Amino acid sequence: MQDEEYMQQLSLGIDSAFDILVFRYHKPLFGYVYRLLNDEKLTEDIVQETFLKIYQQGQKGVVPDQFKPWMYKIATNTCKDYWRKPTSRLEYVTDKNIEGTGQVHPIIDHQLERQWMVESLNQLSIDYRTVLFLRFYQDLKYSEIALALDISINTVKTRIARGLKLLENILITDERKGAEGNG
């Protein structure tokens, strides 16, 4: 069955349909929100709140035309609500140290590279960061991103192009800083 059909069942009071949606989308939604927030506990809270909103909408009879972009829109807006809170930036401090042994050296190298990329992405504004995460980490199409963020497809294309250019500049700057520090 399609996701929209499960939402239709939920609107008819069949709660087991919601369980299937949670099972299907918990992991990808968690990954998306975690990349935006970089905080595991906060991510879990946001994901739960997103699913709660989906459940409540289903109980009200809301059945989106396309479930996946609608779900990401709810998650993105829930993150934006968090960022609007005055204390949220102060609470946004996390421990990013990675420790390991010689046995897992290649894994740590990969994790450090990935961490470097995520940290670089996090330097972008939320508008650029969100479209890049949805496109490259969640593999959404431009039309799905447009629906999820309530913007035009041209805006999606522009933000992706500009975001990639800004990211490239950040990565080049970071690489130069690293070379100067080692040289």
From TrEMBL:
Record-linked InterPro entries: RNA_pol_sigma-70-like, RNA_pol_sigma-70_dom, RNA_pol_sigma70_r2, RNA_pol_sigma70_r4_t2, RNA_pol_sigma_r2, RNA_pol_sigma_r3/r4-like, WH-like_DNA-bd_sf
Gene3D superfamilies in UniProt: 1.10.1740.10, Winged helix-like DNA-binding domain superfamily/Winged helix DNA-binding domain
Domain RNA polymerase sigma-70 region residues, every copy: 22-85
Keywords assigned by UniProt, alphabetized: Sigma factor, Transcription, Transcription regulation
Domain RNA polymerase sigma factor 70 region 4 type, residue spans: 115-167
Pfam families: Sigma70_r2, Sigma70_r4_2
Domain of life of the native organism: Bacteria
Keyword Transcription regulation attributed: yes
Keyword Isomerase attached: no
Family: Belongs to the sigma-70 factor family. ECF subfamily.
Record protein name field: RNA polymerase sigma factor
Organism: Bacillus salipaludis
